[in-house]
Amino acid sequence: MAPCLLCRGFKKRFGINNASKWQGFLNSLWTSIVRNKKHEMALDYLKEWGDSFWQETDYRVKEVTNKLERDLEGAIDETIPGLSLNFSAARRLSQEQKEEVVNRAQQVVNKVQIKELSAIMDFLDEVLLSDRKKKYYITIDRLDDDWVEDRLRFRLIRALIETGLDFTKITNVKVIIAIRRDLLDRVYRFTRDTGFQEEKFRTSSIDLIWSKEKLTEVLDARINALVRRQYTKQVVTHKDLLRPVVVGKKRTVPAVEYLLERTLLRPRDVISFFNECIVQSDGKTVIDNHALFQAEGNYSRDRFRALVDEWYGVYPNLGITAQILRKKNPNFRVKEISAQEITDFCLEAVTSQDPVDGSDINEMIMVAEDALKPEDYRRNLMLMLYKVGLIGLRPTDGMPISWSHISSSGVSGAEIDEETRVYIHPTFHRHFGVSENKAGS
Fold it and tell me: What is the pTM for the complete model shown?
């Protein structure tokens, strides 16, 4: 991960975009700086990766992997001559030999991770980026893309996070890694090992939460850009296009308030809803209530499908398990989903649906086979639906509703009992056929 971050920084800072410029950069460094042993180690590292340093990330990752593999083979050959790095060879090793191989492999990895990286960091701080008045930011996104097998991806992301923390040694460089909370939770879960301290990572991270005011600004900026480009040079906002929404028989609310309540407070949700409103208002100068309600139905179904895709790696059967909310009241107490309803629901899901192997469907199978109490599964199910954002929870009357996408503390499984009140998020009311006229207290 260090070469990838370094490459991005070097290319931006020194305008390196081909092998010729890279070689010239190295030559100028070699002749201009006052070298010491630590600087020479860093320069040797840069020269070693000179042929691939300016290449694209996937090329450099292959180069690093190949070198690491060669170093591992050399170290292991010293321990057990003739041993190949493959599964069949490993099966023939004794436990003592396996421990020795792991020990030598760890030494090789530590050498790459600690010595060379430390030298590079010092070189950057003391020589290349010594002007403290200049600030540099390296931003990394799209880690949730399907770019490698999950288990390897989780370890690579953890290595990336650890490398980003190492960059804090350089005071005028900031590495910013954007990552979804569910993906980060999986990284911690599947890479946890002896000595792992999650709080070390948590203290270096912040939750990005959009306020309704900021989301309204995003919406207005989009509206203004769309309308000015085609129709007028005057400033146009949501107030010019959206009409107040009549809810029920008597209550009227501002349209932007109605729209934002049906999002998980993310720009993509707001934009998706508004785009659908435009589609339903084709040929009209304003978005009336009829068009907004038509748009809401399509938007609600699309958002649910997007949520299922987003959480597939953790809950591959969310599309099935979430159906427990269908035709429910907007809010209800946990006990209103009876043990018999849970049992019937699980039995139908595992026999008539097409589930994917995963922990979520395994619990439903356990309920169907009387290996798990319906009440225990119900609590686990409510916690899962809360975590993904489908529902909010009020563990005790008088407390505020907790939503996972805006609550810093959250709700634990121990806080959920029969009297806990469940609130289906308005984003998904239309998808689940929830009638807002039947809301409880």
Answer: 0.73
